[in-house]
# Entry
Amino acid sequence: MVSEVAPFVVWFKRDLRWSDHAALKFAAERGRVLALWVYEPEQWAQPDASTQHFTFANECLSELQTWCENNGGELVRLRGAMTDALTYLHAQLGRFALVSSEESGNAWSYARDIAVKRWCEAHEIGWTEFPNNAVVRRLPSRNVWTKRWRERMESDPLSPPSQVRWVDGSALRHGLRVNELAAHEFGLSMPDKPERVRGGRSMAWSNLESFLSERGARYRIEMSSPITAAHSCSRISAHLAWGAISIRECVHAVNARRAEIRSLPRAKVSVGFLESLKSFEARLHWHCHFIQKLEDEPQIEWRNVHRGFDGLRDEAELESELDPDALQRLIAWRDGNTGFPFVDACMRSLAATGWINFRMRAMLMSFASYNLWLHWRHTGLHLAREFTDYEPGIHWSQSQMQSGVTGINTVRIYNVVKQSVDQDPSGEFIRRWVPELSHLNAAAIHTPWKAGVVHDVYPAPIVDLMASMREAKAKIYQRRRDPEVKEIAKQVFEKHGSRSPSRERTYRKKLIADTSSLQTSLFETEN
# Structure
């Protein structure tokens, strides 16, 4: 008599979909399947976790559960540490095989996965991980990454399993088994975002399809302003972060839409739309490019990529340990009370919606890091909790880039008043989110202190804008011109730098430029 093959436990993490899911497909083709989600208390106790992340994940899980049920199975939910969940399953199922997608997450998930690997080895349980999107585990050299990305994106997305033989989840005894849990059960007391995007694969596809069919036509020129970006951007970033849709599915959808546009009669071809699709596809590429940095160097989450910039800012581990003046600046920035209307409007909008467009994200971090001279770790943690689409690899790489501590990226110090005039010329966005200034006209609303509107209804600027920009430039440049810092920058580039020919040529020129030219070329001040 031939014994039955051990069942497969498909462990879902930040890959909450059933299509283009290699682990699920693999398991369904080889044996019985138990679909597993684990509410891990430690995950939700991390400083980058928030109520909106928990609730968004639950919304994605609800659709995943419906898919399982429609196909004759169920999504088994457990509560506890992942190793405890595995022990629980092992006691009831006996031997099983664990399969999952690779995860390039925060430090906690990295440590959790190491613990899971040790548990599997100790219990002689096989654990197979499958690549997720185009991040390459144990990448031998950055030089081959783009080739790997293209290879993965060119192959067709995996179809959902056509038939699944399920493990009878009802046979699992009580213990860690739970139904859907709520954020407050894990101590997440922050309120949810009232205007955030809703989770789930159906919403992901709805947003992507409306973007590709109509909303994205002016994406390339309307993604910079917070007024137009909310409509003209895809709004699928949170779904990508939680894996309700894959990068490969998006790339193939873009290619299909591009072919459709090109098949139209010449008079009806929208060149602007094609250019927007090109820009969007580039950002799908960058999505994986930045996560790859964290995969290659997990320490990016908490320490400078370029160690030559250590000690540049207050590196107190806890907010409570910050210098009182720094803490005051952090609180004002976080609460949208800096006295700079456009900055405050962006922060208040983010607090309500969980989203702001990329240019504004860069501006907010630039202002915090340069004008307020705050360490990116403190401001980055706040933004991580605020962004519904928080993706650790992208977030921490960008936080460091916009703070000038990578040593290989052009330093951009945004003039927030110029950005205000450029991106919100009539003051429409400011009036919505900073209503205490709604009575001001377009000429005065960007600089209310000049109109005498301070103290009584709105705070005075927390810093002198131009003086703080000059001081930040001087501090950053003093570090960058140091020969040892330049040498370390070469090593950082070899590990993390883009291999785009144009970007590499630009970087090489900077490395060999003399001191006088560096002072002007390294700082692209948005003034």
